[in-house]
Design brief:
Elements (H helix, E strand, L loop, with lengths): L2 E2 L2 E3 L2 H4 L3 E4 L6 E4 L4 E4 L13 E9 L6 E8 L5 E5 L5 E6 L1 E2 L2 E2 L3 E5 L4 E4 L4 E2 L3 E2 L4 E9 L6 E11 L5
Parallel strand pairs: 1-17, 2-12
Antiparallel strand pairs: 3-13, 4-5, 6-16, 7-17, 8-13, 8-16, 9-12, 9-14, 9-15, 10-11
Bound molecules: (2S)-(carbamoylamino)(hydroxy)ethanoic acid and nickel (II) ion (NI).
The site of (2S)-(carbamoylamino)(hydroxy)ethanoic acid has 4 residues, from loops.
Length: 166
């Protein structure tokens, strides 16, 4: 029996245990370029460890997920953080779990607006990219380099996400 998961709006406070929300937070804004540009400063930081690791910037083109969707697995990157910033003008789903003795706990599902991104902290359990409604592009900042930077966990019983938006 798959357990249904609720979906909550993505907010900085709710997401804090998992990482940062990348959004135009007025508290971070400073004017630059002679007042012609608003800089929303240091919303998140890339965290890369391990010999030879480096921060890279990628483009992910995600196929839309079909719903209802079964969350059967989670993953994490022990050597680096990973951020996703949508650039196709659509919302997306963010699915994360607290670590419980080396395994992901019950997933929490957030609906990210089209103007919100996330930075998963290093070694934070998350589900791979979940685009909604159309093929969507994301700017992704994460780690390249030697070492195993992917740990996956398959749930004994999957969790269910019903239709996220009308
Ligand atoms: N595999 C890969 O680069 N992507 C995943 O890490 C993901 O979180 O989507
Ligand atoms: Ni990942």
């Amino acid at each position: 029996m798959t357990e249904p998961l609720d979906i909550q709006p993505l907010t900085k406070a709710a997401f804090a245990p998992f990482g940062e929300v990348i959004e135009a937070d007025p508290a971070t804004m400073r004017y630059i370029n002679n007042g012609t540009t608003e800089r929303f400063h240091a919303l998140a930081a890339a965290d890369v460890v391990g010999e030879g690791g480096r921060v890279i910037i990628n483009l992910f083109r995600g196929q839309p997920r079909d719903f209802p969707y079964q969350v059967g697995m989670m993953e994490r990157h022990p050597l680096g953080s990973q951020s996703f910033s949508p650039i196709s003008g659509r919302p997306f789903l963010v699915v994360v779990s607290m670590d419980e003795g080396g395994k992901p706990g019950r997933p929490q599902v957030f609906l990210a607006r089209a103007d919100q991104g996330v930075n998963y902290g290093r070694n934070v359990w998350h589900h791979p990219l979940m685009s909604l409604g159309a093929v969507c592009d994301f700017l992704v900042v994460d780690r390249d380099g030697p070492g195993n930077n992917l740990e996956e966990y398959v749930f004994d019983t999957p969790f269910l996400i019903s239709e996220p938006i009308s």
